[in-house]
Design a protein that fits this description.
With 339 residues, the protein is α/β, with parallel strands linked by helices. The protein folds into 2 domains: 2-125 and 254-300, Periplasmic binding protein-like II (D-Maltodextrin-Binding Protein, domain 2), CATH 3.40.190; 127-252 and 309-334, D-Maltodextrin-Binding Protein, domain 2. The chain is built from 14 helices and 11 strands. Helix 2 links the parallel strand 2 and strand 3 (54-60). Helix 2 packs antiparallel against helix 11 (280-290) and helix 6 (164-191) runs parallel beside helix 14 (325-334). The termini are far apart. The model is unreliable at 1-25 (pLDDT under 50).
Amino acid sequence: MQIIISKGILIWSLIIATLGFQAVQADEVNIYSYRQPELIQPLLDEFTKRTSIETNTIFLNKGMIARLELEGERSPADVILTTDISRLQNLVNAGVTQAVASETLEQNIPANFRDPADKWFALTLRARIVYASRDRVPDSALTYEELAGSDWNNRICTRSGSHAYNLALTSSMITHHGMDKTKEWLEGVKGNLARKPQGNDRAQVKAIWAGECDISLGNTYYMGLMLSNEEQRAWADAVRIIFPTFENGGTHVNVSGMAMAKYSPNRDSALGLMEFLSSQEAQQIYAEVNHEYPVHPDVALSPVVESWGSFEPDDLNLDTIGANREQALLLVNEVDYDG
């Protein structure tokens, strides 16, 4: 079952959650998800097929922590699915998750992709890359630092600088270069924008296709999503992927991940789902359906993802990236990036 939450029906959804899930059985798992339902449903269907455990999904595009705090011990949530390391850390810092001890999770997920206290676990990786015009950009290699250079004046499109994906990149820049140089970098990138930040990652690729800009920042998996969309395929065909690196590091990566809700009423079934999502079988589904990079080291990339080429992930600690988020937002606002 899926319930999609919008602002106008928040109160009604709370009633559903507190009343409709009260009689939850041990053979069900209730999921609060930031991820779009269509991106996770194939995995949930396979889990139910294998275990006969039903899944109930509530999609929340905002207010997840506030909702969990409001529900408290009455919360029906078992498993939380979200994107971005900062969102995972915010869940932990808010005290709405619990530690999970599992040898299976430890075996399937490398230590650098899970919380040292076992309160969050990464499921997939995505690189923050450059989409470049096939016709107007001959470059095959770039650094993130070069995006602030004069060569790209009036040639860059991005979404909002305060979006989680761009904040994570800025957080990494802070770790590599400090606050002052990161501020200079943000000012330089802003000065190179061809238009005011707007839309999502795919909208930037559309702008390249339309000739409004030559390069954009985006997550890798959007290329796969555009290629599988009849209308958007033309956008994807107009660009190619460049894997930028930091001058003293690799390509910036972020994660999608999961956590067990603090008051999970179906803990055993929830753990079963989490372990399944970390398995080679589920990771392969992620790779094929969502065009993401599996965290399980033994899972092969999908042919589509493999066709984009290889890259060396930056080795910054994910916790450090998340910890710098507030400073990154401060700098984005200070330079008025979206203005």
